[in-house]
UniProtKB/TrEMBL annotation:
One of its GO terms (molecular function) is unfolded protein binding. The gene is CALR3. Belongs to the calreticulin family. Residues 1-19 form the signal peptide. InterPro entries: Calret/calnex, Calret/calnex_CS, Calreticulin, Calreticulin/calnexin_P_dom_sf, ConA-like_dom_sf. Keywords: Chaperone, Differentiation, Disulfide bond, Endoplasmic reticulum, Glycoprotein, Repeat, Signal, Spermatogenesis. It comes from Pteropus vampyrus (Large flying fox). It is found in: Endoplasmic reticulum lumen. The lineage of its organism: Eukaryota, Metazoa, Chordata, Craniata, Vertebrata. Component of an EIF2 complex at least composed of CELF1/CUGBP1, CALR, CALR3, EIF2S1, EIF2S2, HSP90B1 and HSPA5. It comes from the Eukaryota. An alpha-D-glucoside binds at residues 109, 111, 128, 135, 304. Disulfide bonds join 105-137. This is Calreticulin. Gene3D superfamilies: 2.60.120.200, Calreticulin/calnexin, P domain (2.10.250.10), Helix hairpin bin (1.10.287.540). Its main location: endoplasmic reticulum.
Length: 385
């Protein structure tokens, strides 16, 4: 039988068609978004969201998203979907965020929660699986968070990933693969990638196959396992990351290290029972032992963050198992409106400059210019914030 040659485009279409979309939100049905999203009432001072495309946009309707509306507030809102496990599958999380207020200090990240999260009481203390997206505060913090919840602890990525700091809409994509690799994209371009195990400093959680030492305090003729033997102990050398915010990221805990199985008869002298030496052996099986990127009960996505100055717009949320689908979705949403958005902003900026010049000339003719800062300078200083 002759070989059948399938066009590459047909293969790509088939792969996208087989994609599983767990959650997708574009806010294209007006105020009915309120039927899908739950505003937390945990704190009466939580800020509120509205649907808006902002002061400038590429498409007035397509660019509408959830916008923060009150300065100096915490925000907490979430949407639920059918629970799923990403075991053995790629997990792609994607959304757009726009800081048109020129963010000075505040979060622009999202959180993915277990299905049993209490939406009405959502707060900074609510357990989450994944926290992903930009965080900006002053000159020091301009980073993309990628925090994973694993073995009852939150682990932050070691590699610094710089976020976008301008006032335009940007597309953020996180890809977690079953082979324990990951990729972070901004505006469709790969910014960082690597090993989940090593880039989250999870190597201490590897399976330990063989011990070389046990406690010096045990007698040589002792046959039973000591009563004070514990399977895990705190990593005393671990330090809390300098930019860890307990209010936003949750309480930080030092990672737990796993002691090797107790082996009777292996009792070298001179080693304290809380200090352990292990033989460095190549272990090809430990990667499947800990499932570093698997989450069994994913069921909600939300915004739980703080902002000094409001105005951020969140849109085009997507959770899927297909990198191709996410790429195409990004092109069909952000890709179609990014150009017109910048054009509209450029037109508005030119109009504001012209208006500022006209007001300065009017002030000068009226003799009211002495001791005043020009409107032109005020306009530019505002846009530098």
């Amino acid at each position: 039988m002759a070989a059948v040659h399938v066009p590459l485009w047909a293969v790509c279409v088939l792969r996208v068609a087989l994609a599983t979309v767990y959650f997708q939100e574009e806010f294209l049905d007006g105020e009915r978004w309120r039927n899908r999203w739950v505003q937390s009432t945990n704190d009466s001072q939580f800020g509120h969201f509205r649907l808006s495309s902002g002061k400038f946009y590429g498409h007035k309707e397509k660019d509408k998203g959830l916008q923060t509306t009150q300065n100096g507030r915490f925000y907490a809102i979430s949407a639920r979907f059918k629970p799923f496990s990403n075991k053995g599958k790629t997990l792609v999380i994607q959304y757009t965020v726009k800081h048109e207020q020129k963010m000075d200090c505040g979060g622009g990240y999202i959180k993915v929660f277990p299905a049993d999260v209490d939406q009405k009481n959502l707060s900074g203390k609510s357990q989450y699986y994944i926290m992903f997206g930009p965080d900006i505060c002053g000159f020091d913090i301009k980073k993309v968070h990628v925090i994973l919840h694993f073995k009852n602890q939150y682990h932050s990525n070691k590699k610094p990933i710089r976020c976008k700091v301008d006032g335009f809409t940007h597309l953020y994509t996180l890809i977690l693969r079953p082979d324990l690799t990951y990729e972070v994209k901004i505006d469709g371009q790969a910014i960082e990638s690597g090993s989940i195990e090593y880039d989250w400093n999870l190597t201490s959680l590897k399976k330990m196959e063989k011990s070389l030492a046990e406690s010096k305090d045990w007698e040589q003729d002792e046959e039973d396992k000591p009563q004070d033997w514990e399977k895990h102990f705190l990593d005393a050398s671990a330090n809390k990351p300098s930019d860890w915010n307990s209010e936003l990221d949750g309480d930080w805990q030092a990672p737990m290290l796993q002691k090797p199985p107790y082996q009777d008869g292996l009792k070298p002298e001179g080693i304290d029972k809380d200090v352990w030496l292990h033989q460095k052996m190549k272990n090809t099986n430990y990667l499947t032992e800990y499932d570093l990127s698997e989450f069994e009960n994913i069921g909600a996505i939300g915004l739980e963050l703080w902002q000094v100055r409001s105005g951020t717009i969140f849109d085009n949320f997507l959770i899927t198992d297909s990198e191709e689908y996410a790429e195409n979705f990004g092109k069909a949403t952000w890709g179609e409106t990014k150009g017109p958005e910048r054009e509209m902003d450029d037109i508005q900026a030119k109009e504001e400059v012209k208006k500022a010049h006209e007001e300065d000339e009017k002030e000068l003719l009226m003799g009211n210019f002495d001791g005043k800062e020009s409107n032109f300078k005020r306009f530019h200083r505002r846009n530098e914030l």
